[in-house]
Amino acid sequence: MNALDVLKYGDGEVAKATDGLDDWNTPGVTTSWSAKDVLAHLASFERFLEEAMLELLGRGPTPTLDAMRADAAGFNAAQVGSRRNASLDAVRREYDEAHARVMGLAAEIGPDRLRQPGTIAWYGPSYALDDLIVYANYAHKREHCAQIRAFRLRHAPARRAGE
């Protein structure tokens, strides 16, 4: 697996799903989240991955990773809630900047260490960082981008009819 490609394609999914989106604040992308909330959620997961990489490299601090470990069940609501009053531009910038740092860290870590089992024992003793990249980053983005696309389709006819 080429983790850098997987990271790039996941980011491309986010860009395609949100390109030209004009309704960022209406709930309904998920049962209660707007597109901005979903992007805030993805930003928190980008930071989570970044901090998992930093921890592997012996760097810190890792507040997002620590928050996930301390309260996995409440992580999503807390992270999205902490960004609720931020502007869309600020949330987008946070996501983009975290993604850029993730790309740099993945390149620094290198493919051999990214696929080395046991490097993230807290995720599972037989897992490697590239597993986290595939499951908690790429697949996660694909799932939420599909929700954004479905939201856009559900709301597109209403906008056209009202024009």
SSE topology sketch:
Elements (H helix, E strand, L loop, with lengths): L2 H16 L16 H22 L6 H8 L1 H12 L4 H22 L1 H4 L14 H34 L1
Helix pairs in contact: 1-5, 1-7, 2-3, 2-4, 2-5, 2-7, 3-4
What does this structure look like?
- The chain is globular, with a radius of gyration of 16 Å.
- 72% of the residues lie in helices and 0% in strands.
- The protein has seven helices and no strands.
- By secondary structure, it is an all-alpha fold.
- Helix 1 packs antiparallel against helix 5, helix 1 (3-18) packs parallel to helix 7 and helix 2 packs across helix 4 (72-83).
Number of strands: 0
The low-pLDDT segments are none
Radius of gyration: 16 Å
Report the sheet with the most strands, covering strand number, pairing sense and barrel closure.
none
Cα(first) to Cα(last) distance is 47 Å
The tally of helices reads: 7
Approximate strand percentage: under 5%
Q: What general outline do the C-alpha atoms trace?
A: globular
H/E element sequence: HHHHHHH
Mean pLDDT across the residues is 94
Structural class: mainly alpha
Share in helix:
over 70%
